[in-house]
Amino acid sequence: MQGLSCGTSRIVGCRFSVYPMADNFVEIIKGALEEVNTAKVWMKTDDVSTCVRGRSEHVFDVTKAIFTNAAKTGVHVVFNGTFSIGCPGDSDGDTYMSEDDVRLNEEKVQQERVEVATQFSLYPLNNPDYMQIIADQVAVADGHGTFTKGVHYASRLDGDVNNVFRTLEEAFYNAAQTDERSHVTMTAAVSANSPSTKDK
Amino acid sequence: MQGLSCGTSRIVGCRFSVYPMADNFVEIIKGALEEVNTAKVWMKTDDVSTCVRGRSEHVFDVTKAIFTNAAKTGVHVVFNGTFSIGCPGDSDGDTYMSEDDVRLNEEKVQQERVEVATQFSLYPLNNPDYMQIIADQVAVADGHGTFTKGVHYASRLDGDVNNVFRTLEEAFYNAAQTDERSHVTMTAAVSANSPSTKDK
Question: Which residues of chain A have a CB within 8 Å of the CB of B49?
């Protein structure tokens, strides 16, 4: 990994599911996956969730693309997952760390317009300053214009899927920069096309 | 709170959603909620998730009951949420801490038989021994016979919904016992009636 010294040179993972609230959920999920280029991430799906691992930018690129493809069907779809960096003992998928930083799905997904409501929580582990790290990243979200309000145990983001995922990625990236061995996780529930009135 | 000295005297919360993969998801969610007695918890639902707060036993009682009611329809349903204890600054719902420990939905839910596949992760915050705390609770799950295997970033549980929620509750409770001000969160994705082959 010579030449890469920042936190993104450490492997990032996301274990997530996409839940389409529709009878044809299998078809929607399969369709969403087929359209996404996953060449730069390690990926495995089981009966509960999907795990993608690799460079941070590709993990966010792929998860955003899968969710957006499912959401653009117009069906009520929720992405619910946990991003993770620095988990001790993590090694599978290390070969994917040699990929370059060109995102394979970004251009296409930037053309989509999907409004989302999101609740996310950062968990910096083994760090006595964790509450300040969280507060700093809520301030970053506020600067992006995506932060709406705090709720119990989470912060709420609203806006276009591309803007919201940008905030999620930056908040996660920044929180992981505290030191080179930091272990940080971040949960996110991203909802599109809900029939409920938005509770901003 | 005089007379209560153990960890369960601290307020516990869960922010969760139940996702029925069906066109009539609204009906299934409403039906599941109507059947559950939520008198002993603070509860608020928005367009992304539901938050319940109160004594640990009632938070687990209510979340299990809502999920089980939705799952017993036979539709593919997933519960995805984060349990939390010790979040600094938490005070809403404190009045519910004076409720007794009799679970209002347990008897009814014990009569249901719903097979579930679960992935959960414990996050003890601000604790240098957090990896050992996690390992200890995986051993507890193993002792319950619900633990199936470790996967990236999570542990897998399989079995009846009542057994799996018992493991989740005990793992969470135990992890919170390290000291009286510990802050612990636990994510859980609990899936029923998936058409995918179980990947035990």
Answer: 119, 154, 189
Identify the domain containing residue B120 by its residue range.
10-87+113-192
Is B52 domain-assigned?
yes
The torsion angles phi and psi of A149, rounded to 5 degrees, stand at -175, 165
The answer to whether residue B2 sits within a structural domain is no
Per-residue pLDDT at B90 exceeds 60: yes
Nearest CA in chain A to B191: A48
Q: Is residue A70 part of a domain?
A: yes
Nearest neighbour of B121 by CB, restricted to A82, A197, A198:
A82
**Global pTM?**
0.94
**Using a CB-CB distance cutoff of 8 angstroms, which residues of chain A are in contact with residue B154?**
15, 49
Please tell me the total number of residues recorded for chain B in this structure. 200
| CB-CB neighbors (< 8 A) of A197 in chain B | 47
- Amino acid in position A36: V
- Asked if B130's CB is within 8 angstroms of A127's CB, the reply is no
Q: How many whole angstroms separate alpha carbon A173 and alpha carbon A6?
A: 10
Sign of the CA dihedral running A24, B67, B43, B82: negative
Tell me if ipTM is over 0.90.
yes
H-helix or E-strand containing B172? helix B161-175
Domain count for chain B: 1
Cα distance between residue B196 and residue B21, in whole Å: 13
pLDDT tens-digit readout, A37-93: 999 999 999 999 999 999 999 999 999 999 999 999 999 999 999 999 998 766 667
CA-to-CA dists, residue A53 to B32, B58, B133, angstroms: 36, 36, 25
Among the residue ranges A46-55, B88-97, B148-157, B178-187, the one predicted with the least confidence is B88-97
List the CATH number of the domain containing A83. 3.30.70.930
Whether the predicted pLDDT of B2 surpasses 70:
no
The answer to whether position A187 is within a domain reads yes
Is B21's CB within 8 Å of A25's CB?
A: yes
